[in-house]
Design goal:
Layout: H1 10-13, H2 18-21, E1 35-36, H3 48-59, H4 70-81, E2 88-93, H5 95-106, E3 113-118, H6 122-130, E4 134-139, H7 148-158, E5 162-166, H8 178-190, E6 194-198, E7 219-224, H9 226-230, E8 236-241, H10 242-248, H11 259-270, H12 272-294, E9 300-301, E10 308-312, H13 316-325, E11 328-329, E12 331-332, E13 343-347, H14 351-364
Parallel strand pairs: 1-11, 3-4, 3-5, 5-6, 6-7
Antiparallel strand pairs: 2-8, 7-8, 9-10, 10-13, 12-13
């Protein structure tokens, strides 16, 4: 039997959209045998006793049945955990990535566009392009702050359907200036667009937009349990005014949250104090890392409100490869945007992992 050719046949190529053929798939680095500090994951696993308890609970599930009303138990548990305001509702996604894609689908009307500051999370632009929407990226300042004037000008010119504001931002790990943030949100509201506040890194942040969200009828709050400690479970959630969530929820695929996923998430929320303790440990480790990086010659580190730290080194490619050879995997973001020239993104790990990362970084500069 002849193996399939690695090059797509011309008669099949014509079936695939040209813009998709020119895109690159989301890349995942091989991390086998490495200290894995490239994807902003919580490095802590469940304690052994909770592992055993969860295993028994998952083993008792009816895997022969489609997901049932138990998924609504998760919605209610998340609403309580997040202190969702009255009059709001919650929509679940297979990770926040799916919700970003569903938002683009729901808002795909004639002339629609999506706007976000850059550098930022790559899925904002990718979801727009996959849906055939225009994506407008507005560069941050050289210090990775919102360029308020440029954002307001772009909003006025393009009148985007959705404006994404990651809070804190990825990969820069910073929060936005409050006055600039409110000015941008107000401007989007005046021209009839939606703002999505993406709080993926909320467990590690000193601020949340939740206490301000009820001021606006056009702001949605996007969160995930990935940074909470369940990256492998793939649960994202979107909160907003009930009427707005009801419309967006119509494009959600049926049974998009598996029985295993929602039961894992419910179990984790029942033991939220364990994950809260892990988050506090990572915040403490972040402070130690920032102090160590501040004393490292040739390294500039930016303040972080997430479980990652952005650094600039003299030669990102050389340093990344040197660290990889020393079995420490971080993320080379230097090619993502001109503002990120020679930048690496370091995930905050355990105390032991961070010691190894710092040693590998210093030897690889």
């Amino acid at each position: 039997m002849t193996a399939p050719d690695s090059v797509l046949a011309p008669n099949l190529r014509k079936l695939i959209r040209q813009d998709i053929q020119s895109m690159h798939a989301y890349a995942i680095q091989d991390s086998a045998g490495m200290v894995k500090l490239d994807a902003m994951e919580n490095p802590h696993r469940l304690p052994a006793a909770l592992q055993a308890h969860l295993g028994q609970r998952l083993g008792a599930l009816a895997l022969n049945r489609y997901p049932d009303g138990r998924v609504n138990d998760l919605r209610h548990a998340l609403a309580g955990y997040a202190s969702m305001p009255e009059g709001f509702d919650i929509m679940l996604g297979n990770g926040s990535d799916e919700l970003i894609g569903l938002l683009a689908m729901a808002c795909d009307v004639a002339g629609a566009s999506i706007l976000a500051p850059e550098p930022g999370f790559v899925m904002y632009g990718m979801s727009a392009r996959l849906q055939g929407l225009t994506f407008i990226g507005v560069p941050l300042t050289a210090d990775f702050e919102l360029d308020e004037a440029a954002m307001l000008a772009a909003i006025g010119r393009h009148q985007p359907s959705i404006t994404y504001l990651a809070y804190p931002n990825n990969p820069t790990a910073n929060l936005w200036d409050d006055a600039a943030l409110e000015s941008i949100i107000h401007a989007v509201g005046l021209q009839g667009g939606l703002v999505v506040m993406d709080e993926a890194y909320q467990p590690f942040s000193s601020k949340s937009y939740l206490d301000r969200i009820t001021r606006h009828h056009h702001v949605l709050l996007l969160r995930t349990l990935s940074k909470f400690g369940l990256a492998g479970v793939r649960i994202g959630y979107l909160m907003g005014p009930k009427a707005l969530i009801a419309e967006i929820d119509k494009v959600r695929p049926p049974y998009n949250i598996s029985v295993l996923n929602y039961e894992c998430a419910l179990f984790a929320l029942e033991h939220s104090e364990v994950f809260a303790s892990q988050a506090q440990e990572l915040i403490a480790q972040r402070a130690l890392l920032l102090a160590a990086l501040g004393g490292m010659k040739g390294v500039k580190a930016w303040k972080s409100d997430a479980n990652m730290i952005l650094v600039r080194v003299p030669d990102a490619a050389k340093t990344f490869e040197g660290m990889r050879q020393r079995k420490v995997l971080v993320k080379n973001v230097s090619k993502m945007h001109p503002l990120l020239t020679d930048c690496l993104r370091l995930t905050v790990g355990t105390a032991e992992e961070n010691v190894q990362m710092l040693a590998a970084l210093e030897k690889s500069l």
